[in-house]
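URGENT: need a sanity check before tomorrow's submission.

F., can you look over the Cx9C motif-containing protein 4 record below? I want to be sure the sequence and structure line up before it goes out.
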Amino acid sequence: MSSTRKDPCKANACRIQACLKENNYQEHKCVEVLEQMRQCCLKWHKQSICCSGIDLHKNYITGNKSDKQSPKAEEKSS
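C-alpha coordinates as predicted:
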Protein backbone atom coordinates (compact mmCIF):
# COMPACT_ATOMS: atom_id res chain seq x y z
CA MET A 1 0.00 0.00 0.00
CA SER A 2 1.33 3.40 -0.93
CA SER A 3 2.14 5.72 1.95
CA THR A 4 0.10 8.47 0.25
CA ARG A 5 -3.11 6.44 0.29
CA LYS A 6 -5.36 6.43 3.32
CA ASP A 7 -5.87 3.08 5.02
CA PRO A 8 -9.55 2.20 4.43
CA CYS A 9 -9.95 0.60 7.88
CA LYS A 10 -7.93 3.06 9.98
CA ALA A 11 -11.03 4.87 11.29
CA ASN A 12 -12.42 1.53 12.50
CA ALA A 13 -9.12 0.73 14.23
CA CYS A 14 -9.24 4.10 16.01
CA ARG A 15 -12.82 3.40 17.14
CA ILE A 16 -11.67 0.08 18.61
CA GLN A 17 -8.92 1.79 20.58
CA ALA A 18 -11.32 4.47 21.86
CA CYS A 19 -13.95 1.89 22.84
CA LEU A 20 -11.44 -0.28 24.67
CA LYS A 21 -10.02 2.70 26.55
CA GLU A 22 -13.51 3.93 27.53
CA ASN A 23 -14.41 0.44 28.79
CA ASN A 24 -11.22 -0.36 30.74
CA TYR A 25 -10.04 -2.71 27.96
CA GLN A 26 -12.98 -5.10 28.37
CA GLU A 27 -13.24 -6.52 24.85
CA HIS A 28 -16.77 -7.87 25.35
CA LYS A 29 -18.04 -4.30 25.66
CA CYS A 30 -16.72 -3.43 22.18
CA VAL A 31 -17.99 -6.34 20.10
CA GLU A 32 -20.03 -4.13 17.76
CA VAL A 33 -16.97 -2.01 16.96
CA LEU A 34 -14.83 -5.14 16.50
CA GLU A 35 -17.41 -6.59 14.12
CA GLN A 36 -17.46 -3.36 12.11
CA MET A 37 -13.68 -3.67 11.80
CA ARG A 38 -13.98 -7.29 10.67
CA GLN A 39 -16.51 -6.27 8.02
CA CYS A 40 -14.14 -3.56 6.78
CA CYS A 41 -11.27 -6.05 6.70
CA LEU A 42 -13.30 -8.62 4.79
CA LYS A 43 -13.55 -6.03 2.04
CA TRP A 44 -10.17 -4.27 2.34
CA HIS A 45 -7.74 -6.82 3.88
CA LYS A 46 -5.33 -6.53 0.93
CA GLN A 47 -5.10 -2.73 1.22
CA SER A 48 -5.30 -2.24 4.99
CA ILE A 49 -2.33 -2.73 7.29
CA CYS A 50 -4.78 -2.29 10.20
CA CYS A 51 -6.35 -5.67 9.37
CA SER A 52 -3.27 -7.74 10.22
CA GLY A 53 -4.57 -8.79 13.66
CA ILE A 54 -8.25 -9.22 12.85
CA ASP A 55 -9.69 -12.74 12.75
CA LEU A 56 -11.75 -12.67 9.55
CA HIS A 57 -13.46 -15.96 10.47
CA LYS A 58 -14.83 -14.81 13.82
CA ASN A 59 -18.12 -12.96 14.08
CA TYR A 60 -17.34 -10.79 17.09
CA ILE A 61 -21.02 -10.31 18.00
CA THR A 62 -22.01 -13.99 18.03
CA GLY A 63 -18.55 -15.35 18.78
CA ASN A 64 -19.02 -17.97 16.07
CA LYS A 65 -16.39 -18.91 13.54
CA SER A 66 -17.58 -18.95 9.95
CA ASP A 67 -17.15 -21.97 7.71
CA LYS A 68 -16.02 -19.71 4.91
CA GLN A 69 -12.34 -19.79 3.96
CA SER A 70 -10.36 -16.69 4.76
CA PRO A 71 -9.29 -14.58 1.78
CA LYS A 72 -5.66 -15.61 2.43
CA ALA A 73 -6.56 -19.32 2.34
CA GLU A 74 -8.50 -18.79 -0.88
CA GLU A 75 -5.48 -17.09 -2.48
CA LYS A 76 -3.23 -20.04 -1.61
CA SER A 77 -5.68 -22.60 -3.01
CA SER A 78 -6.06 -20.72 -6.32
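My own read: The chain has one domain: 10-77. Helices lie at 10-22, 31-44, 71-77. If you see anything odd, call me.
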